[in-house]
Structure formats: structure tokens, C-alpha cells
Amino acid sequence: MAKQAAEKGNKECPQALKRFECEPFMSELKLRPSKRRSCKRGELQRLKPSSLWGLDVVTPSAKLRTSSAATHKPSWVLALFAGAVATGALAVGALGAGQQRRGNEIRVQTDLVTILASVTDPNGKPIPDLTQGAFQVAEEGVPQTIEHFEAETNRPLDLALMVDASISTFKDLRFETEAAAHFIRQVVRPGDTLGVFEFTETVTRLADFSDDVPRLQTAVRQIAPGAGTSIYDAIFLGSNALKRRPVGRRRAIVLVTDGGETTSISKFDETRRAAVASGALIYTVLIRPVKNESGRNTAGEHALITITDSTGGDMFTLDDKSQLDDMFDRIDRELRTQYLLAYYPRPIPPPASDRHVKLDVKGDYTVRYRKEYLTPAATP
Questions:
Q1: Cα–Cα distance between 335 and 153 in angstroms, integer?
Q2: Helix, coil or strand: residue 48
Q3: Mapping DSSP to helix (H, G, I), strand (E, B) and coil, where does residue 311 land?
Q4: Phi and psi angles of residue 192, each rounded to the nearest 5 degrees, phi first
Q5: Which of 9, 243, 295, 378 can bridge 278 by disulfide, Cβ–Cβ 3.0-4.6 Å?
Q6: What digits encode the pLDDT tens for the residues 339-357?
């Protein structure tokens, strides 16, 4: 009876995501009882990473081992296989260079690298009407030839909306969730999908990626407070969730938080690399509960600045909750006025390497873009 009750509880709760050490090519998520809330049966979806989109799945380069601090985390954690799909993406659908061996001969394949770029004027207003000739791209200091260009790209978007539900942000949580519900209605267009996540000491997926706006709004209104703030875990898991989405689509994370990182298992560098590898743009909405730096956790804020800049996203700082709707509006406008550029890297980059890109635009403009990408390892 106890076993049946536990299995029933597993099927009737949101998905709490937390990394753990697992066997290679694990076929599905493992569920454990949740701490709160029930939801409709069928909301939990078991993912099979090894069969997604015909792509190979590999285990993380650094396996996570349970630390002494982690052993005190609640047992309702959902253990998530955070295997990485073997691509080196600069942006959605972009791959690095790979090698194939045939006999004694090594075949080198170079795939198109794509860049999503946002261009703004000195007042922060998006500039939507530039031509290909306004852009120059270089990789590791070597100029590259732009082979493909789209102004105001209309490629479909997969977006992970991740909301900090820690006690430190709870006093404004109702306002945040209503603003987020309005943003969902605004940002999801035909062909787009959005997933809703909350994070405290763990990361919970409240709604999987879909275009069902009413269901997504209901999910964001279910966000409930908890202890701790696992920002690194949220970015790491959100990046891997987006990485499993279909290729050829844009990817973005919108992270609403007070920046007070306290309980993550993931470390800063692996979090940043996971974000880079996913090809997702990260937009951070930082709600500062205290204006004076001496009263806040600024280390988390500085880490978010670095990660956000690495992905080509943007960071918005709010001192007043009334600014939240405006920040969501700015993110929506930027996502609709992006440029897409693509090139074949020359010389061909070596496998398993970290490549650095520089994009310049003519005029008195600011351009934001992903500044690096990771090439896949050589194929045996």
C-alpha cells in the first residue's frame, strides 16, 4: 500500500528537477515524492534523451556527486539526467566542426555556425533595418564570410521562463506571477513554445514547453514560496531542457530573481558552459530587494552579469516592482527584432574546442551576441 501511495504521489505532482550522478544513457527521468501541490494526472512526462531528434546523448563532462550539504536536501527531488546533446552550438541549430575517421583517413566536416544578434541605439531602442553589409564577423581573430543573413528573423522560439520563488522574493511574488502571466500572453506566437519553471532550493518544472497560453498562465500562478535560491541549478537545468528542443529554432531563458544564490549544487563555470552549449540567450530580470550593495548578495549578481553577457542576452535591474511589466515588454521587443547571421568557420576549428567570436556593426550602436561556442568532440 505504501508503495502504491508513493507511486500515486509521483504521478500527481509537478516535476522538481535536481542533478544527480547517473549511469550513462539513462533512458528516463526518475521521480520521487513532491513536497506540495497536486496536479492533473498526465502532466508528468518521461523524457528519453537517447532518442530525441536522432541526436546522440552523452553524459556530463563532470558528474555531480552528492555533497554533505546536498544530503540534507528534501527527498522529493526529481533526479534529472543532465546529459548533453553532442552539438557545439553558437545559436539555435548551429553546429561546430566534427571529424570522422574512415580507415587511416580522418574526414573533417564543417557545419554552419549561426549567430543571433540584437542591435540597439544609445537609448536602448532596437534597430531593425540593418543590412548584411553592416556586420563583420571574426572567429579567433580571423575574418569570416557571412553566408546567410536574416533581418528580424521570424524563426520559432523556445523559451524557458524561470521564476525565483525564494522567501526573499515572496513579498512581491503575487505581482511577479501576474506580470509573468501577462508576458506569456504577449510573447508566445504561433509556432513558439514556452515552459514554466520555479526555483528555490530545487528547480520545479510547472509546465512543459507548449503554446497553450491558458495552461501556462495557470502554471505560473501556482508558484509557491520555498527556502533557498538555486540560480546556477536553474540555469543549468533550463539550458539542458532547451538543448533537447528541436534544432533550427531560437532558444531563450528569462530568469526573474533577486540574485541571491545560496543553495545550488552546480558550480559557476559548469553553469556558464552549459548555457553557452545550449545556444540559449539569457535575459535576467534582477529584482533588488535592497538598493544598498552592503545589504545584498552581490556575488550572485556579478555571476549573472557574466553568464548573461556570455550568452548574448541582457540584464535588467529593477528597484521597483512597477518596472517589471516594462522589462518584460523590452524583452519581447528584442526577441522580435533579432538578426541571424551564419558562416562556415575558416580555418576549420579543432574538435572539442572553445571558439571565440567577435561581431562588429557599423554605426553608433550596441550589438549583443553569443561570444563563444563549443565544437563537438571527434567522432570515433
A1: 9
A2: coil
A3: helix
A4: -85, 160
A5: 243
A6: 999 999 999 999 999 999 9
